[in-house]
Write a structure and sequence with these properties.
alpha/beta; six-stranded mixed sheet; two-stranded antiparallel ribbon; 7 helices; 13% strand; elongated
Length: 287
């Protein structure tokens, strides 16, 4: 049966019901995808920048740790760079009759030729570097290993560990020498110096001409400086070194050497050498 509209043909109050699907209004608790994505992108960019900075400051050789320190020829480090001659050990121990390893040709020392001894310390160091790198007139393309390419030695084969070693005048020391200021009648054996450097140390030698009180006074000042650095924890051994040309002072660390006439003593430069090179090369973990 047909449904009839109410009299007058008008629709019920309120009109026909709506057929639209209700839309649920969000309460704001959804995950903020866009802000999180932006933040993640920023972090990635910052990380990439940091990585590139680190890479640009690192060596192209890919070396790290002791190997990188050994090969660092940067002019920002004090002293003259001398290419490494390796870290080998001699067989047998030290005796007073044992012939020491010779110095390479062109390296000035107290028993060398007059012309080399008369050269300025800086020229001596430059000659040592050139000889070691093969740039000297009679140099070879490889670093020699049968002689020391600097004075004091700055790398190379050295004596094994020994205790209670008599180095003359009744003086008993250890090899390699401990960080200390040794009495002035103690000479550290030439072949023991590189071992002290391998143990993260610095060697400081001196050779005043007999009766040169001005040189002796400078040595007293340096002894005070070295004692203060040892008290701070620096690994430095100071001793008389009869191999040095008379009137000169020489410092060495692994692949670095700094030699000067005592009249040119600069406390700041000596202190800087010790501070920068103590523990710089530390392959055996002494620091």
């Amino acid at each position: 049966m047909d449904r009839k509209s109410p009299a007058g043909g008008t629709a019920p109050a309120g009109g026909p019901p709506s057929r639209r699907t209700p839309v649920k209004v969000s309460g704001g608790g959804g995950f903020p995808t866009v802000p999180v994505g932006i933040a993640a992108g920023v972090l990635i960019v910052v990380g990439l920048i940091v990585y590139l900075i680190i890479q640009s400051n690192s060596s192209d050789t890919g070396l790290s740790g002791p190997a990188k320190a050994e090969a660092d020829s940067s002019s920002s480090l004090p002293g003259t760079y001398v290419p490494s001659q390796g870290r080998g050990h001699f067989t047998g121990g030290y005796t007073s009759s044992r012939p020491p390893t010779p110095f390479c040709e062109g390296v000035a020392w107290s028993g060398g030729d007059t012309a080399a001894a008369a050269a300025t310390p800086s020229a001596q160091a430059a000659t040592a570097e050139a000889t070691a790198s093969g740039d000297a007139p009679e140099g070879t393309p490889t670093v020699p290993t049968n002689c020391y390419n600097s004075n004091p030695p700055s790398s190379g084969k050295h004596l094994n560990v020994q205790r209670n070693v008599d180095v003359g005048n009744g003086n008993i020391i250890k090899i390699p020498p401990d960080p200390d200021v040794y009495p002035r009648d103690v000479d550290i054996p030439r072949d023991a110096i590189a071992h002290a450097l391998e143990h993260a140390g610095v060697f400081l030698g001196y050779n005043c001409k007999q009766g040169d009180t001005a040189c002796d006074d400078v040595i007293t000042q340096i002894e005070d400086l070295v004692n203060s650095r040892i008290d701070r924890g620096d690994r430095v051994s100071m001793a008389h070194d009869s191999d040095l040309v008379g009137g000169t002072i020489g410092l060495s660390s692994w692949t670095r050497v700094y030699v000067f006439k005592y009249e040119d003593y600069d406390k700041g430069e000596v202190q800087r050498f010790i501070e920068k090179h103590s523990c710089r090369f530390d392959p055996e973990g002494f620091c």
